[in-house]
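Thread: zinc ion complex, take 2
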Amino acid sequence: MIGIFLSSASSAATAIVVAAKLALLNLLWDMKYKLNILLFIIFIVIPATTVYAQEENRRFFSSGFCTVFYYDDVDLKRVNRHLNLVFSNFYSPRNYKENPGTSIEDMISDKFDAIFNRAEEILDMYPSKIHVAINIYKKQEDMDKVYEEFFNGPNKAVSFYIYKTNTIYTIESQLNENILSHEMAHCIIDHYFVILPPRKIQEMLAVYVDVHLKD
Ligand SMILES: [Zn+2]
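Output below.
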């Protein structure tokens, strides 16, 4: 009986030790688990939601020649007001007034395409399958950051075109038909020539487009 008692006592003690070890392991596991969850939240979930939140605020729409990207703080009505298309018989503001169902995106799309058409016409260059991305930023600083990443230097322009990304970068407050036609001209020139003319010649051609836009 004693033996049995002892053995059962020792087995009880062993059981307690095992239980204590298991509890400790569980606790450690639990801590590690909690720590892992915490680290997961800090490094994976939070940045992902930030990116997701940013991406959620990023919007776009497409026209025949352009896909326009912008964050929802950009005032599209202001962008539309700044695009004055007296040169184009393709676009008539009166038609839009008669049709209140036309969205602001549609109005801007039509204007952008009209400017693109006109730039091609002035250059007499019609590269096939041409399509350009246009990023509209709210603030100059936001656009400057992109420029600095690409060129490792400070930006001095209110807009620019990068061939590598086939994108026009511009800001809400500065965008107008002349600036846009100039940058679109850079896109058209870069896609037209097999061997690109020197930078200065490209610039002369682009300036020619914005100067003669309303001829
Ligand atoms: Zn230029």
